[in-house]
């Protein structure tokens, strides 16, 4: 029996204390993950170009093999995206952020609001968004442990990442309000405004 099948509360490893409440819960959108994390349109274009180049040079067998390989690769990526979306649950409570994920090895990562140094939002053209969480300097999270729920290329100081949120801007605003209330002394988070190619900082410094 998998760990996910015995959760007392969906997405959470145990029942919350009475003083803690769930503010928001959601998952990773499969189509957004396919486009923005796995870059499947680029993968498809790559194999299409190779196949067309083979046809143009008369290498019909090579073009056919390339086309089959491309279809197989896209199929595997689609399956992986489906498994990621199926196994992922993000939870925001009034005290922490909980990330439950894991295709082969179920995991649950608890991130107290007090250790989040900076939150950033990256919006995509399809209307979805990602939220990256930079932790305080004394906190460390393994990149490979978090992947694919980690900000790309941040190996030295990995950042947990809530990927493919269907209503990311609303979730970011909700997270900002929740963190401002949860952190002792209060922290101000500016509204996130990001484009498909930028990460807009949402400072949480007091």
Fold topology:
Blueprint: E1 22-26, H1 30-37, H2 40-56, H3 60-87, E2 89-93, E3 96-101, E4 107-112, E5 116-123, E6 129-135, H4 143-146, E7 161-165, H5 168-182, E8 200-203
Helix pairs in contact: 1-3, 2-3
Mind explaining what this structure looks like?
The chain is α+β, with helices and mostly antiparallel strands and 206 residues long. The protein has a domain of 106 residues. Helices cover 35% and strands 22% of the residues. The strands form two sheets. A four-stranded antiparallel β-sheet has the order 1-2-3-4. The N and C termini lie far apart (44 Å). The C terminus is likely disordered.
**Net shape:** elongated
**Beta-strand segment tally:** 8
Mean pLDDT comes to: 82
Strand content: 15-25%
Structural class, judged by helices and strands?
Answer: alpha+beta
Spatial ordering of strands, largest sheet: 1-2-3-4
Number of helices: 5
Order of helices and strands: EHHHEEEEEHEHE
* Helix residue percentage: 25-40%
| Radius of gyration of CA atoms, rounded to a whole number | 20 Å
The profile of the biggest β sheet is: 4 strands, antiparallel
- End-to-end Cα distance: 44 Å
> Which stretches of 5+ consecutive residues score pLDDT under 50?
188-206
Task: Looking at this protein, list some descriptive labels.
single chain; 206 residues; alpha+beta; four-stranded antiparallel sheet; 5 helices; 22% strand; disordered C terminus
